[in-house]
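Incident review: delayed structure delivery

Summary: a single-chain prediction request sat in the queue longer than the usual turnaround. Root cause was a stuck worker, restarted by the on-call engineer. No data loss occurred. The affected request and its eventual output are reproduced below so the record is complete for anyone auditing the incident later.

Affected input:
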Amino acid sequence: MWEVMNTITSKNPERINGVYVIARLVHGGETYFVFNKQYRIPTKSWTLEFPGGIQEAGESPTDAGIRELKEETGFVATEVLLSSTGRQATMPSRLNDTARHVVAEIDGDSKLNSNPKQNLDDAEMTEVVLIKASELLPTIQSLEKELDIASNVYTFAIGYAMRNL
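Output delivered after worker restart:
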């Protein structure tokens, strides 16, 4: 017997539940990736995740990602570099949840991003985590001792490290 959590609320097969933002911040000549440390009740743990959230009715995945990035981190995206298409299943063995990914650039030297302030929902417990791009995988491996790492974050870190193999 299989238990499946149903998270799809729209009958439109093109509709996704949410969006994740892979945000690259360039500040003072250094490149960082932007993550959220967030408490998750289902796992009773703090997790390291990409900023992201629910795509609202009438909103494009890109617009949802940029909005969520601003709400959760306070950063304003300077440019959208890439975005996935279709629907990415987040955990197809257990959920019918689907998402897309948006890759955004943040100019950390811009006045828009000089003093980022989160605008969180009441129930959100989230901290912004910046990780140097050059130290991404080792930092993730160190953080896994105290945090659960979202699978898409870990996969991204491994893929990013593989570019130098």
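Verification: The chain is about 20% helix and 35% strand.
Action items: add queue-age alerting; document worker restart procedure.
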